[in-house]
Amino acid sequence: MAQTSISPDQKYARSGASRTVAVARKSASPYRGYEVFLLPGVLWFLALIVAPFLVNIAVSFTKWQGVGMPIWTGLANYQKAFSDSTFWTSFRNNLSLIVAMTIVPTLVGLFLAAFLFDYISKKFGAGVTSFFRAGFYVPQVIPIVVAAIAWRWILQPDWGAVNSLLRAVGLGALAHNWLGDPATAMPSIMVMMVWFQIGYPLVIFMAALQRVDPELHEAAALDGASWLQTFAYVTVHLIRPEIYVVILTTMIHALKVFPPVWLMTRGGPGTATYVASYFSFRNFFEISNVGYGATIATILTVIIVVITIVYIRVQTQQQREEGLYG
Amino acid sequence: MASRSRIADGAGKYLSLIALSVLLLLMLFPLYMVTINSFKTEDGFLATGPFRLSTNLTLDTLKTTWKSTEYTTKLLNSLAISLTTALLAVGLSLFSAFALGIGKVKGKVLFLVFFLIAVMLPSESLVYPMYYFFKLVKLYDTRTSVVLFTAAFHASFGTYLLASAFSAFPRELIESAVIDGCNKLNLLFRIVVPISMPTLSVLFVFFFIWTWNDLFTPLIFLISNAKQTVPLAMALARAEHNVTITLQSSAALLGILPCMIFFILFQRTLTKGITAGSIK
Predict the structure, then answer these.
(1) Who among A143, A245, A252 is closest to B213 (CB)?
(2) Strand pairing class (A71-72; A62-63)
(3) Distance, CA of A240 to CA of A318 (rounded, Å)
(4) Which of B174, B168, B200, B209 is nearest to B188 (CA)?
(5) ipTM score of complex
(6) Which chain A residue lies closest to B145 (C-alpha atoms)?
(7) A208–B279: do the CB atoms touch at under 8 Å?
(8) Can you give the pLDDT at residue A326?
(9) N or C terminus of chain B with fewer C-beta within 10 Å?
(10) Which of A118, A141, A257, A278 to mutate to test the interface with B (most CBs of B within 10 A)?
């Protein structure tokens, strides 16, 4: 575009604006005055996230049926929660789900990603690799409702796939009422969640591996490192950022999880498969114990926020230390 | 010696492929079951059980389920809700990220932290007051309530992601545009948006799929049959059609089909998007 013959200063001088305006205009940065664009998002955020959150915390200090006025009870709900065995069962189940949704999928995902990336793609090409990657990701795409329906059939005690298979190979004695037996209900849900979750780390790690310099692998091989050693000390180290993200996001998901429990067992048998979110939901909408439901939700939120803060602190600390030593 | 290792290499190669394929088949087994049972008649099902194929195939089961669950209505509901929420969330994210990622706003880090915390919050910590409020303003049992609430969550994530992306936006483009007399709206829609289209489309796809599959929010805010979304209808139908596997199957398959279509269409965009967020 052709240079304008009049400089901005002269323009303003001619338009009669005061000198101070001209000076201010000249030093105005293109990066100021964006606050107005924040308005819609922030207002939305305040109305639909901050407001209900604060109200919920307030409700957690009350006894309320959802109709009429809430009655202030102070810390009574919190005291109740800490001595409530159902609450501790829920908490324990959430921890089990962290194993099923974070620890196992991350480890399996790492190995599978490395296997697909290093071995399969070299021997069979990118098409085959993409095919497998997409296939393993499918459980993440289908609605959890469908997964739950299918898994309920697989675990069905009389004709379900698992029991039928066990009976067919003569291990009928091991056949169980998987979802109906308190001892096996939660582990069954855990197995389903591993199945569900594997695709997510797999996809992320495979993408991460693409930015690893293959020369590093060659250098390690030249130094006499086995595949496992290279994997553990070089590869894993280099895709650390992605591993961190996967662990954090899956952990939070495991703490918040609701649909699988509601769909598979409704928290049963008894309270064997209760998780924090389901327990809260039940108090809100099924037994109208709104104050207590709010308490559980608040405790869950605090746990999530604390874990996240600690996690990020540890992560930045480690990264800082590594920065010092290369 | 050389030929032995080559044979071993070849054998190892195919062995691992077979192992991988077996694993994949196991992973997709639930899907396989849902598919084959949707096309069986009741008699066909009784004859072959839930795990074997049947030669007696029919579309009747699917048709019955389509009618009995009023699938068309549910499909339109899901479509309307997911599209609107995704568009709204992308729009909100765009505006907020424009301010935080490109502009210099005081307290930018604090804003981003708050948005990020919103993403972590469990729905249960927000849902009851929202439920009460929506009932108060007569928005309960409307698709609008679901859209408003869900958009808030997705917009928080989107703001964070997009702000990261925008902070890497080439400054020279912005500065030269401003020098050319471009105002902020033009800057946004004529320069930033076209260049960021890939990220924006990925965000849209994410939001669409997440909203579509969301069970909790519609469960709480939508009561009447006419307003339900596809996943919700299927989850509730399960209790009624408990007896016939074929009907349940066909309901499940009808639930999967839209998602699989999206997945196939957007598989490439999805993987690009997943990495964009994590690498930043």
Answers:
(1) A143
(2) antiparallel
(3) 11
(4) B174
(5) 0.79
(6) A48
(7) yes
(8) 41
(9) N
(10) A141
